[in-house]
Structures are given as structure tokens and as C-alpha cells.
Amino acid sequence: MKPAEIRTLRESFGMNQTEFGQLMNVHWTTVSGWERDVTPPSAYHEQMLQQFKKAAKLKENTDIIKGALIGAGALVALAILLEHLIPKK
Question: d(Cα 44, Cα 58) in Å, to the nearest integer?
Fold first, then answer.
């Protein structure tokens, strides 16, 4: 994902770099480095970014994820994201 796309994604969730870093389990300076094209995301983080990009297409997901991150932490936010992205049988 390109640096500008990462910033746009973060902003679509209404998060600052610190909050987005918590969601991605990295320091805010890492997020800053991604957005300034100083360092690329790891393969793991790239996959997470791609999944959050899919989730960001639905406005209600951005609100759910940010609320979960603030209220309960990154693991809960990721669990909610996965629950919404995995098709129900």
C-alpha cells in the first residue's frame, strides 16, 4: 500500500497516528514512517492494512473499529473486524 493510501485509510477511521499505531500494534512513529515513505509496512502489517481498507468501505465498520479500539483495545477491534469481514454461512 502506498504511503498516501495509508494516511487516507487512517484518516477514514478518524484516527491520529497514535491510535492507528495501537490498532496496528506499532508505535506512532512507525505509522509516520509508513506515511512518509521512510519505511514500508512489514508483510504482516501490509495484510492488516489491506483488510482494514476493505472494512473502511463501509462507514459503520470505521465507527465500530474505532469505538472498540478506544473502549477495549486492538485485539477486540481486530476480532470485530474479522467478524464483519468473514461471510456468514
Answer: 23
Alpha carbons 40 and 63: distance in angstroms, whole number? 26
pLDDT in tens, 39-63: 999 999 998 898 888 877 766 666 6
20 closest CA partner among 40, 12, 39, 47: 12
* Residue ranges, the chain, pLDDT below 70: 58-78, 80-82, 84-89
The pTM assigned to this predicted structure is 0.70
Greatest alpha-carbon pair distance for the chain in Å reads 42
Q: Which domains, ranges and CATH numbers included, belong to the chain? A: 3-85 (1.10.260)
